[in-house]
UniProtKB/TrEMBL annotation:
Organism: Bosea caraganae
Cell compartment(s), UniProt: Cytoplasm
Processing after translation: Phosphorylated by CheA. Phosphorylation of the N-terminal regulatory domain activates the methylesterase activity.
Identification of the protein by name: Protein-glutamate methylesterase/protein-glutamine glutaminase
Pfam families in the cross-refs: CheB_methylest (PF01339), Response_reg (PF00072)
The Response regulatory domain, residue ranges: 15-133
């Protein structure tokens, strides 16, 4: 069940345009959205050109966009859709292939908010209650984002002031491990932070939990590596972690850490979801609290839900600092907001300030 946000913004169903070359998919999505009572499908499109036209005409709150369409495909159409309707939140819906994973990540850098892998067969789509639930959940999450309704959330004010905070008085040792957790809106935000840390990454072992399905996480790691020139990939179970490298949790599996023969190694597991997430930020943070203590630095970024809150508390109790992205620059202030409300955040920092703050920490304040 999706709970609509309180206030007047919840009274009006979110307007949606569905762009998919399959008439069956368009009809199925439209029926599901109509039955939910929270969305109003104002138009459908079978190709990218029509999707662009509908974006300009209807200015929808949300567009569900397929990547594979005749004529102008979703990737080509996306920049024009953003231009025609800048406030429209875009959910990509595509089949799960390596090619589409790369294209979806490219689209996220151009403004798409999230991606939904479609079942390979139409029968799998029509018969899967899990897929329907995930579709409505993602649309519900997007509907609650500030991007989709043009206003801030109804969450209380942060418990700590926003802005760059001097973390040095709050840490006992310089961090050697950077642990990042993110979900909706994360790929672009995480990549920016890593790029802003710049050469400070050479002094860190960086581990990232980004809520994504299989294939997408490997492509995300490749994209990050190409963008910032630092090795980034999914680790294997038991791999000894190296300074100057970025390790991304594989989609559908937990990434934790362990200590073997005096070395910190990656721990990859198929354990049950934590807070409905696998990989889960809580798993990584909790392991880090146990094995790293104050040598760890946690960062919780944009995303729906509360994954990372318990782990952030464990990190703080172990003497580590935790940064939360601020509400104004988060696509969805669910995960970082939960950490802030639980009073586990050492600092609340806007996206542009996170990378410089971390770089200053690991450089001892001399490389900012």
């Amino acid at each position: 069940m999706i709970i609509a946000p309180s206030g007047s913004a919840a009274l009006r169903p979110k307007t949606v345009v569905i762009a998919d070359d399959s008439v069956v998919v368009r009809g199925l999505f439209a029926r599901w959205l109509g039955e939910s009572g929270q969305f109003h499908v104002v138009a459908v499109a079978g190709d990218g050109e029509t999707a662009i036209e509908h974006a300009g005409r209807y200015q929808p709150d949300i567009m569900v966009l397929d990547l594979d369409m005749p004529g102008i495909d979703g990737v080509t159409a996306l920049p024009q859709i953003v231009k025609e309707s800048p406030k429209t939140a875009i959910l990509l819906a595509t089949t799960l292939t390596e090619r589409n994973a790369r294209l979806a990540l490219q689209c996220m850098t151009m403004g798409a908010m999230d991606v939904l892998p479609k079942p390979e067969s139409r029968s799998g789509m029509t018969l899967s209650l899990d897929f329907r639930s995930e579709f409505l959940s993602k649309l519900g999450n997007i509907a609650q984002s500030s991007h989709a309704h043009g206003a801030g959330s109804d969450l209380p004010e942060p418990a700590l002031p926003a802005g760059i905070v001097d973390l040095r008085p709050l840490i006992s040792v310089m961090p050697r491990y950077l642990l990042i957790g993110a979900s909706t809106g994360g790929p672009r935000a995480v990549a920016k932070v890593l790029a802003d840390i710049d050469d400070g990454l050479q002094d860190l072992i960086t581990l990232v939990v980004q809520h994504m399905p299989p294939l997408f996480t490997a492509s995300f790691a490749e994209q990050v590596s190409a963008q910032i020139g630092v090795p980034a990939r999914e680790p294997y179970d038991g791999e000894r972690l190296s300074r100057g490298a970025i390790y991304v949790a594989p989609g559908g599996r937990h990434l934790g850490i362990d200590r073997k023969l005096g070395h910190i190694v990656a721990s990859i597991s198929d354990g049950p979801p934590v807070r409905f997430c696998r990989p889960a930020v809580d798993v990584l943070f909790s392991d880090a609290a146990r094995h790293l203590g104050p040598a760890a630095l946690g960062l919780v970024m944009t995303g729906m839900g509360s994954d990372g809150t318990d782990g952030a508390g464990a990190l703080r109790r172990a003497g580590a600092a935790v940064i939360a992205q601020d509400e104004a620059t988060s696509t969805i202030w669910g995960m970082p907001g939960s950490v802030v409300r639980a009073r586990h955040a050492s600092a609340v920092i806007a996206l542009d300030g996170i990378g410089p703050a971390i770089r200053s920490l690991v450089r001892g304040g001399h490389g900012a």
